[in-house]
Write a structure and sequence with these properties.
The complex is a heterodimer. By secondary structure, chain A is α/β, with parallel strands linked by helices. Chain A has helices at about 1-10, 60-65, 105-115, 120-135, 150-160, 180-195, 210-215, 250-274; strands at about 15-30, 30-45, 50, 75-80, 80-85, 90-95, 170, 200-205, 215-220, 225-235. The longest helix of chain A is centred in the C-terminal third of the chain and has 26 residues, at about 250-275. In chain B, helix 5 (about 95-125) runs parallel beside helix 8, helix 9 packs antiparallel against helix 10 and helix 12 (about 245-255) packs antiparallel against helix 13 (about 260-285). The chains are: A alpha/beta, B mainly alpha. The complex binds adenosine-5'-diphosphate and magnesium ion.
Chain lengths: ~270, ~300
């Protein structure tokens, strides 16, 4: 546990994400479709941000552009003042799909990033075991992914990204495939890890409650083309307990966000039916 | 070959005989099967598999003994008992030199095919330029059957041994090559992204993501390739002078001695099945992470 706390002291200085006038378009059947138009936002070190919007509005595309998977057709992304053009270890990613390497055990999966960086074996197993303990996976360290439940796989994916101590952790609907109970557990676990590490997190979700429970700020996205429609503060006290989503402020915020998203969902459906 | 085809085709008497025989067999089998279904034995997998062999050889023996002749003619076919006779004779007459010769040819051809097929397959699957440079010629060679290579094998190689190894090689090479290419090309984009986000270099992506991901496909290529090598053995050993199971098979055909042909066929089938099984087991050892459908979870 000590290493986790040690790291939190150093990681607060990094994790500054700037997205400047980001536009992305895709070619489909010869047509050029603009998916994102002029996305502009900053995320400060240690902040927990949720990108919230109806499905298809371009949330994943924003995240993919920050990760360097997708080339912007306009605008720039900077992480800690460095221009992003290819994927790199400074931006950890947790995918919606289960993405552990099937041929590696839990331990080897989590260890992979450190191995790539050439960290010594003893140091590696110290760090990895520490994280495995933290998320309750130590006793499953020798299991292969197919032997783990969905929740366990996502926990392993999260710490696999975190052992690299990235500047920013990008999470694309990581809990969407889990059942409600597991999802709540995972959200609490994520917050407790984050409060130790203070890594900047950009978390994509379409679940309003999830966004309110997790984030400092919610970026509500609009459709056609994707853009930031509103930025809302989620001023609930931390540490948060699941009940907090039932508090008056949370309910109020929920209603506000719900209206914003509803308009966009209707708009996206109108376009689809054309 | 010599019997006129009119005799072989439908003739009412043999049809009638067939009916009688079938009636007898059915009533006999019925009583046997019904009684065996009530015993716990039938629930044992091994028992069922052994039973399948008995049924296979039993039906074959029966068809030969009754000179079954309805479109397919069993009259001149060696019966299992005759084949057993030929096998006993084969095994009393220094069988190992034949078996060893065949195994060495198949294993050498297969090993070269595995090394070349996997290496080339990985290169073709991973590098577009290499694919562009070699893929078309290989596609051109791929459909050529092993038999068609015999004349060229005689011309190309310094001795018949090398020619025979070449033909068993051809049998194994293409399945291994194609499966490896497919395996490498079908690498999961998601897992590539996982690697990139962890800062993996090309080498790490290759070693820890692409190759393990292609392994199941490569393994099935190896199993098919192993079978195909044996498949080509008779063809290869047409070139042989003295030894080899395929040679015996071919030679017996030339001298119209039929029981050893069937024996040779069965031995090749047996050795082929066994070595393909061995390859399958060995490759499974390399992939402890794999879930197969039949394996209880
Ligand atoms: N690689 C791609 N090629 C073409 N269109 C794409 C591609 N990726 C995403 N899109 C389109 O961009 C839009 C936004 O997608 P995405 O970012 O996945 O939305 P979200 O994550 O909010 O559901 C969708 O209409 C989708 O069809
Ligand atoms: Mg998405």
């Amino acid at each position: 546990m000590t290493t986790l706390v040690e790291k939190s002291a150093t990681s607060t200085v990094k994790g500054f994400v700037e997205v400047e006038n980001l536009s992305v378009s895709f070619r489909r059947k010869g047509q050029c479709i603009q998916v994102l138009d002029g996305i502009d936002f900053k995320v400060h070190p240690g902040e927990f941000i949720c990108l919230l919007g109806p499905s298809g509005c371009g949330k994943s595309t924003v995240l993919n552009a920050i990760a360097g998977f997708v080339k912007p057709s306009g605008g720039h992304v900077f992480v800690d003042k460095r221009h992003v053009d290819t994927p790199g270890a400074d931006r950890g990613f947790v995918f919606q799909q289960y993405s552990l390497l099937p041929w590696k055990t839990t331990f080897q999966n989590v260890e992979f990033g450190l191995k790539i960086r050439g960290i010594s074996k003893t140091k590696r197993s110290e760090i990895v075991n520490d994280y495995l303990n933290r998320v309750g996976l130590y006793k499953h360290r020798h299991s292969y992914p197919h032997q783990l439940s969905g929740g366990m796989q996502q926990r392993a994916s999260i710490i696999r990204a975190l052992v690299n101590s990235p500047s920013v952790l990008l999470m694309d609907e990581p809990f969407a495939a889990l059942d409600a109970q597991t999802r709540h557990m995972m959200q609490e676990l994520l917050l407790s890890i984050w409060s130790d590490l203070k890594t900047t997190v950009i978390f994509v979700t379409h679940d309003i409650e999830e966004a309110i429970f997790l984030s400092d700020k919610i970026f509500v996205m609009g459709v056609n083309p994707g853009r930031i429609k509103a930025v809302l503060d989620a001023p609930l006290d931390r540490p948060r307990h699941v009940d907090i989503v039932l508090s008056p402020e949370a309910v109020q915020l929920n209603r506000q966000v719900f209206e914003l998203i509803r308009e966009e969902t209707i708009k996206s459906m109108e376009v689809e039916s054309l | 070959m010599s019997s006129p085809s009119s005799e072989r085709s439908l003739n009412p008497f043999s049809l009638y005989r067939l009916q009688l025989i079938l009636k007898h067999c059915l009533s006999f089998l019925k009583s046997r099967i019904i009684s065996s279904f009530n015993t716990p034995l039938i629930h044992s997998k091994i028992f069922r598999r052994v039973l399948s062999l008995f049924i296979f050889f039993g039906v074959w023996q029966l068809l030969c003994m009754t000179k079954f002749n309805f479109f397919i003619n069993f009259e001149f076919l060696p019966s299992p008992l005759e084949v057993v006779g030929a096998t006993v004779q084969f095994f009393t007459n220094d069988p190992m030199q034949h078996i060893r010769a065949s195994i060495v040819r198949v294993l050498t051809g297969f090993s070269i095919a595995a090394i070349l097929g996997i290496t080339l397959g990985i290169l073709i699957g991973w590098f577009q330029q290499i694919e562009d440079l070699v893929f078309l010629p290989l596609e051109l060679l791929r459909p050529i059957p092993a038999v068609a290579w015999i004349p060229l094998a005689i011309l190309m190689f310094p001795n018949s041994e090398a020619g025979m190894i070449y033909i068993t090689f051809i049998g194994a090479f293409f399945p291994i090559l194609i499966s490896t290419i497919r395996g490498v090309e079908c690498t999961d984009l998601l897992l590539l992204r996982v690697g990139q986000c962890l800062g993996a270099t090309q080498w790490h992506i290759f070693k820890d993501i692409v190759i393990p991901g292609a392994l199941p496909s490569i393994a099935s290529g190896l199993v098919i390739g192993m079978g195909n090598s044996w498949f080509c053995l008779v063809t290869a050993e047409i070139l042989a002078g003295r030894y080899g199971v395929g040679y015996i098979t071919w030679e017996s055909y030339v001298t119209s001695n039929y029981p050893p042909i069937v024996m040779g066929m069965l031995m090749i089938g047996l050795m082929g099945a066994f070595s393909a099984y061995a390859v399958d087991r060995l490759t499974c050892l390399l992939m402890p992470w794999r879930v197969t459908k039949k394996q209880p979870l």
